[in-house]
Amino acid sequence: MDEFKDIRAYRVGWLLPLTDGLLMFPLLQILAWRKTKSLRLEYMGERKQIENDIRHGAFFMTNHRDIIMDAAWLSYRLRMRYGIRPYMGIGDNLFANKWIEFVVRFNRCFAVKRNAGAHAQLENARVLSAYIRHLRSRGKSIWLAQREGRAKDSNDLTQASVLHMLTIDAPDFFEAVKQLNICPVSINYEFDPCDYLKAREMQLKRDNPRWRKTKRDDVESMLTGIRGQKGEVVYRLTPSINPEIDSLLAEHPEYRQLPPHDQAQLVCDIIDRHIHRGYEIYHRGTDFDAYIESRLAMIDIPGKDEAFLREKLYEMYNNPVINHRKSMEELNDEK
Question: What is the domain extent for residue 67?
Answer without folding.
Answer: 2-192+232-282
